[in-house]
Design brief:
The complex is a heterodimer of chains A (about 180) and B (about 180). With about 180 residues, chain A is mostly helical. Chain A contains seven helices and no strands. Chain B is elongated, with a radius of gyration of 47 Å. Classes of the chains: A mainly alpha (about 180), B mainly alpha (about 180).
Chain lengths: ~180, ~180
């Protein structure tokens, strides 16, 4: 029997759908954000903000799929970039403060992360790339997205994605070659 | 790209090396991949370039910070998201707190201005006949607002008509015949 009464289960449904999306995407988004901001706690903030933006700005259906996934990666990237800008401002202030007080030293955020020398060199070389190149390398090498998906996330054409990735990988290979030379 | 074109553009070392990462990332068509594979089989320099790229990718994966990333949001952040979905209005205000603060400040200013204006109007000794208009501020060409009541010049026409009506009624009553009988209940 159909009736015109309001659907009282709508709110719990909405909550369940949202929680299901959080469960589905939190792990990949946390990995992605951690690769960009290099800080697990900041990555949590970035992903939390991404899901809050989903609540406010996503106009489509709350169902897992390519569109939603690409949108979430795009928003997570923007939130991560905002974080990096704030962090750069904070670091500048810290450095200015450190000049006045020589004992103060910035925290070493990479201390807990130990890898081989060659891998560390690769990591450092990756950090020296532009943010755009780094984003594309992360999406391709770690997230294993196709050029088409990367294009949908970044707004670049597939040809551009291929070109930027080619340049970025050449730079990385060159840096590693230099690092290995005595 | 068709087979012939692919053969032409990918057969040279520089073209093959430009497409090497696309090849390793499996982004080339089957025909293009065949051309690159065939070239790599014959060209030592391009094989070295491909091996270098593969090693770079392997080192990047070995240095992956994402592997150490948490797999779930912390409990505090999960609770924050649960709160956001359960209280959409409060969450909206929280999310748009800058715009809400500006709107609240503007509203407070408007209310304060209205209050001050109202006190001036109702203060004893305020000039009578102050008119309030909307949109006719200083510097505009709007016509001045009409006065609330016309100034009284001479007798009130309504009062004159009322008096004339009474006179006619009185005259009519004296000429009319007396009623024949009182109406029966």
């Amino acid at each position: 029997m159909t009736s015109a009464s309001p659907d009282l289960s709508a709110a719990p449904d909405r909550r369940r759908q949202f929680e299901a999306l959080v469960r589905e995407y939190e792990a990949p988004l946390l990995r992605y954000a951690a690769r960009i901001v290099l800080d697990n706690d900041a990555a949590q903030d970035v992903v939390q903000q991404t899901f809050i933006n989903l609540l406010h700005h996503w106009r489509g259906a709350w169902q897992a799929g390519a569109d939603l996934s690409n949108w979430l990666y795009r928003v997570a990237h923007n939130c991560a970039v905002d974080y990096l800008r704030r962090e750069a401002r904070r670091r500048r202030l810290h450095e200015r403060h450190a000049e006045e007080q020589p004992d103060a030293a910035p925290p070493d955020r990479g201390a807990a992360f130990q890898v081989s020398d060659a891998a560390a060199a690769a990591h450092e070389a990756l950090q020296r790339l532009s943010l755009r190149e780094r984003q594309l390398v992360i999406l391709k090498v770690y997230e294993e997205k196709s050029y088409k998906e990367i294009g949908a996330i970044t707004g670049l054409t597939v040809t551009n994605v291929g070109y930027i990735l080619h340049q970025a990988m050449r730079k990385l290979a060159q840096e590693l070659r230099k690092a290995e030379q005595p | 790209m068709n087979n012939g074109a692919a053969q032409k553009t990918l057969a040279r070392c520089d073209s093959v090396q430009a497409a090497l990462f696309d090849y390793l990332a499996r982004e080339l068509s089957a025909a293009q991949s065949d051309v690159v594979r065939e070239h790599l089989r014959r060209c030592e320099a391009c094989r070295r370039a491909a091996a270098e790229l593969q090693r770079t990718v392997a080192l990047l994966r070995a240095a992956d910070r994402g592997a150490a990333a948490p797999r779930r949001l912390s409990d505090a952040r999960q609770q924050r998201l649960a709160w956001a979905i359960m209280h959409p209005l409060l969450e909206w205000i929280h999310h748009h707190h800058v715009a809400v603060s500006i709107a609240a400040a503007l509203l407070a200013l408007a209310l304060a201005a209205a209050l001050i204006r109202g006190r001036e109007l109702w203060a004893p000794g305020a000039p009578a006949g102050v008119s309030v208009s909307i949109g006719g501020g200083a510097g505009t060409n709007a016509a001045p607002p009409a006065p609330l009541a016309p100034p009284s010049r001479g007798p009130d026409p309504a009062a004159t008509m009322r008096e004339a009506a009474w006179e006619m009624l009185e005259r009519g009553a004296s000429n009319a015949p007396a009623p024949a009988a009182a109406p029966r209940e």
